[in-house]
Amino acid sequence: MPDRPDNPSDPLCPLCGRPIPRHARQSLHHLVPKLRGGKGGPTVRLHQICHNEIHATLTETELARDYASIDALRDHPRLAKFIAWVSRRPPDFHARSPGPRRRR
């Protein structure tokens, strides 16, 4: 039987604030991308959908230069809109990301 979504032992996603059940899709995010000097640096566990949205929104250079903290990521306008949307979804919700939306 899967964990209850409100299981107090489930870690919280620092981006959206929802619990991350063991059965939910999840991944580790390097706050500074490995290719930009973050190898061995701090990581955070996120829902996979949250991680996908970060990388669909920001380049690795932008992540390293301006968005190397959860607070900075949460303040990004596009990510703030995404967080408001996804925070109303169940903790194990996952949908395919629409693909890169970065300005080229």
Structural features, described:
- There is one protein chain.
- This protein has 104 residues and is α+β, with helices and mostly antiparallel strands.
- The chain has a domain of 61 residues.
- Helices cover 32% and strands 10% of the residues.
- The protein contains four helices and two strands.
- It has a two-stranded antiparallel ribbon.
- The N terminus is likely disordered.
- It comes from Tropicimonas isoalkanivorans.
Nearest-integer average pLDDT: 88
Note the total helix count.
4
| Category from helices, strands and their pairing | alpha+beta
The level of helicity is 25-40%
Ends apart, CA distance between termini: 45 Å
The biggest sheet, with number of strands, parallel, antiparallel or mixed sense and barrel status, is:
2 strands, antiparallel
Major sheet: arrangement of strands: 1-2
Assess the beta-strand content as a share of residues: 5-15%
The succession of helices and strands, N to C, reads: EEHHHH
pLDDT < 50 stretches: 1-5
Instruction: Please tally the β strands and state the result.
Output: 2
Give me the Rg, rounded. Answer: 14 Å
Q: What does the overall shape look like?
A: globular
